[in-house]
Amino acid sequence: MEKPVRLDRLTRFGQGSAAWRRLLRRKHFFAFEVERVTAMNSSMRQRPIVAALLATTMIAGLTAVPAVAQDAAAPLAAPATTAAPAAQGTIRSITVTGTQRLEPDTVLSYTKLRIGQPYSQESLDQGLRDLYETELFADVQIRNDNGALTVEVKENPVINRIVLEGNKRLKDDKIRPEIKLAPRQIYTRSKVRADVARIVELYRRQGRFAATIEPKMVQLDQNRVDIVFEISEGPKSKVRQINIIGNDKFSDGELRSEMVTKQSRWFRIFSSGTSYDPDRLAYDQQKLRQFYLTEGYADFRVISAVAELTPDKQDFIITYVVEEGDRYKFGDVKVESDIRDLSGESLTKRLPMKTGDWYNAKLVEDTVDTLSETAGLFGYAFADVQPDFNRNKEDLTMGINFRIANAPRVYVERVDINGNTLTQDKVIRREFRLAEGDAFNSFLVKRSKDRINSLGFFQEKLDIEQKPGSAPDRIVLETNVQEKSTGELSLSAGFSSLERFIVAASITQRNFRGKGQELRTSINYSAYSKSVEVGFTEPYFMDKNIALGGDIYRRDLNSFQYLNNNDRNTTYEQTTTGFQIRAGVPITEYMSLALRYSLNFDDVTLDEDTYYTDGQCDPLLAGRYLCDAIGKRTTSSVGYSLIYDTRDNRIRPTRGNNVVLSQDFAGLGGDVKYVKTRLSASKFWPLGGGFIFSLSGEGGYIHSLEGERRDASGELVDKVRLVDRFFLGEPQFRGFDIRGVGPRIIRRYYSTSVKDGVVTGERLTGNNNRTDDALGGKIYYLARAEVQIPLGSAAREMGLRPSIFMDAGAVAGLKDPGLINGNGQFAGYCSASGLTTVRATGTAASPICPSNYVTADGFQVAGGFEEEYLGDTLKPRLSVGFGVNWNSPFGPFRIDIAKALLKEPGDDNKLITFNVGTQF
Length: 920
Known about the structure:
Elements: H1 18-25, H2 49-58, E1 65-66, E2 89-90, E3 93-97, H3 104-109, E4 118-119, H4 121-133, E5 137-145, E6 148-155, E7 158-165, H5 172-175, H6 189-205, E8 212-220, E9 224-232, E10 238-245, H7 252-258, H8 278-294, E11 301-309, E12 315-323, E13 329-337, H9 344-349, H10 361-377, E14 385-392, E15 397-404, E16 411-418, H11 425-429, H12 442-454, E17 463-468, E18 474-480, E19 487-496, E20 500-512, E21 517-526, E22 529-538, E23 547-562, E24 568-586, E25 591-606, H13 608-611, E26 612-613, E27 616-617, H14 619-622, H15 624-629, E28 631-645, E29 656-670, E30 674-688, E31 691-704, E32 709-710, E33 716-717, E34 744-755, E35 758-763, E36 770-774, E37 779-788, H16 793-798, E38 800-812, E39 829-832, E40 835-839, E41 841-842, E42 847-848, H17 851-854, E43 860-862, E44 865-870, E45 877-888, E46 891-902, E47 912-916
């Protein structure tokens, strides 16, 4: 392969180019320095001057084009013909030479020269032009020998391959679709110029106005060439400054805040709005007009918008010239309706604007939409609502008459569904609240759209178009969906502030076989929990509106307490093996009933080496609450949930509310008997600008149906077992540690010393000399207020969703657990060489051991502590903070920073919590 070389510079672009004229039509211009363009020919230095000029003509289109000068070079003059006689004659013969792929007759077919016809110098020149216009030839000459014409051609080469070099910001798969040249095509200058222009335009859309494209041609054997596009991408052109001239009522900062384009500043490093885009410039003009119209300035207009590119092509300076005009108020506003079912007088009373209010164009648009939706509720899908404006420039008022033209009542002719390549039609149709033949209702159309979106099977761009049917009173609902991936295969490892290292593997298909069924299996392993689960859900069993599903699972949980230096020590281990069967039926459009049956086999154990003495759980070591929890038991429960849900999207709601009442009854066989009741509610409001405010609350109560329970020592204990109680803390209550809220027993340890046979004890201070065991509660409540904060498009594409929140809640309601040794009572052990260890008596400050222990060799007192019961109160705990969800490349990530403002003695707060590689 020959090395490409550059030719002499051939042409330049200036203000006379088509590109410049297009930019002027867009009302902005660019200051740039015109560059010459280059091309190449490896052999031109060795040819005669005339041949060099011809080669220059052939490659004239292969030029380096600045990003803002995209049009082709000036037209190329065809090379001069060999001198011909001035007098006219008759063509005696025509010979074609130099062809490789084309037949001579094919070459002649492109001209009007024929044997036996008269010819002149003008006709020969026209023949040259005709051949050059085919763009099949690199060189053409016509020699005339007294009527014997010889047409000498040199065919354009065939393209071997297209090569891109220097492109880093835009990958090949983004650029190649813009290139129309292809291997095995015939090379032409115009196609190269067009491809260069398209690539430059592509970079311009990316904000890189300094980008240049230099096409080169590498000669190969057999008249083949490689086309190489050498790309110099250049830096991204930013918006250095936005100037606004003519604004008196609003400051530059207020107007800039309404624009999508932003000035480039260091704190906008992640913003995509700082790059220049001419389409965005036009959009910003509309945004300015919308802003002024909502403020009452009905005569506002943008006189000009100019974007200047700095000489270094690094930045743009945008200047707007505006005329604000006068501010208007609403005059007389009313509604006139030609539809008999709609009363104009009644609708007028419900208009949001009143005479004397400042004029607001957005309010007028919203009113038109509201009136159209109102007409749609009565079945008038094509009702035409037109506002008639009556502008009075003398008193600066804007009167509006909303006219609702007469229209036929419409019925649904059919429902069309497009774009569902995987999902079966019936899965979508069963979410429709309208069927063929029903009277049209705009509210039910919107409800259908929300239900389809809530499936989670399609992109959020789902749309239900309303199209005229075969008759004026018929409508076709055309649903256009775009499938998205509903299967998830996850193999991940992560780190959680709660569970430390995590390994998770799961396979989930939420649209199994395109029938809307959900099939899932998961395995999770961490230092303190392990689980295996398999589940299946059929949302429409036997094509009836009845959901049926089931789960089989095995869950191992290691509960823990904090020891010295915040080390975590496993207390009890709970193993649960069981299954659940679920069913659900709708009651109304927004209310449904879910039923379930669960059977669990629980096994709670303690480490015998740590908590057992003489083969029995030792309350001095474990506490009565842990000794009471151990054992094997079977829980057979039946439950229901009554659900009321009006949210627009169950996955990411923006409006609506959700209320769930649940109860579970244990005792249908098994060893455990209780009634557990939960109530949760949430409501979402869109605040405008992408902000979403939500309030949610939940609470629960568990009541034992068993009789009195006693521990091994005969002491009464709470009827509800430790593993069945409610717990609060991380992650549901941000600002507090895992199980950090509610009743707990704290053990504070003592150090002992022996002097002259007298034993004394001293309580150790600090969190490093105590243990903290959460006991949970029988009643709890938790409330949250949260505002989701919108980010730019780039952040949304990254999956960033920040929010600020406030959490409040409490858990309580236990029977006093009965402390082993409170009020200073000692709970240690006496040991000495050659003697059996026995328990000490007395107080923590003055422990008492038998005298023979005190006088024996190696005498010591160990394990002294006292217990304190804290946190059993329903007084609210309160925390505030902010958090961020991020769908990172290595798994979902959630971080919360929360400060506990209200807490009770014994509560454990935590400032930062995060999870990586696990669901949140």
